[in-house]
Amino acid sequence: QQQVKQSPQSLIVQKGGISIINCAYENTAFDYFPWYQQFPGKGPALLIAIRPDVSEKKEGRFTISFNKSAKQFSLHIMDSQPGDSATYFCAASIAGTASKLTFGTGTRLQVTL
Amino acid sequence: GAVVSQHPSRVICKSGTSVKIECRSLDFQATTMFWYRQFPKQSLMLMATSNEGSKATYEQGVEKDKFLINHASLTLSTLTVTSAHPEDSSFYICSAKEPFNYGYTFGSGTRLTVV
């Protein structure tokens, strides 16, 4: 199956806290796992992505943890800021020019003061 | 980095008319582009995959005669919503597959309102 399951649906975190969003996939052929951030009325923007040959990738305050055996990956936002308030989507794809992204259902993050 | 430009950002049209949305890759050649539709508070729903010089591949349930996709060059894909109805009102987003890597770059989206 091509599904990517994402949780939670919504998340409220205090400023300075850690936001954690989880995704699980079923298709073991997936080999590219990006996270996108979307603000209202805008298209998704790539935050960070990982390939299955590494278990963790960190870029600034954003970290992806990847568990190949469990077919799960997660996004950690450290020191969450009000400006991080947005909808976050995980996705997965299979290498190939015409390969499409399979998106999770999205998580609406609200960072409070 | 890769940039995808989508126009218009907003459009209002009358029922029964057609509207065209453009998606351009500004600094790379995109052999494959994707068109999505997004309803409020929902995820992106893939409508079709557009390959330069060939017919688009539509997802199940998407009316190909209603949503015409043209990918005539390596930098431009267009989506034309024909005979628009109020239920076609939605947020449409295009995406281009970056060559030589795994990335996908998204346009800023088009808010279509059919009145």
Describe this structure in words.
- The complex is a heterodimer of chains A (113) and B (115).
- Chain A is mainly β and 113 residues long.
- Chain A is 0% helix and 52% strand.
- In chain A, the strands form two sheets. In chain A, strands 2, 4, 5, 9, 10 and 11 form a six-stranded mixed beta sheet that branches. Chain A has a five-stranded antiparallel beta sheet with strand order 1-3-8-7-6, with no helix packed on it.
- Chain A has strands spanning 4-7, 10-14, 19-25, 33-38, 45-50, 56-59, 62-67, 72-77, 86-92, 102-103, 107-112.
- In chain B, 0% of the residues lie in helices and 53% in strands.
- Chain B has no helices and eleven strands.
- In chain B, strands 2, 4, 5, 6, 9, 10 and 11 form a seven-stranded mixed beta sheet that branches. In chain B, strands 1-3-8-7 form a four-stranded antiparallel beta sheet, with no helix packed on it.
- The N and C termini of chain B lie far apart (37 Å).
- The mean pLDDT of chain B is 93.
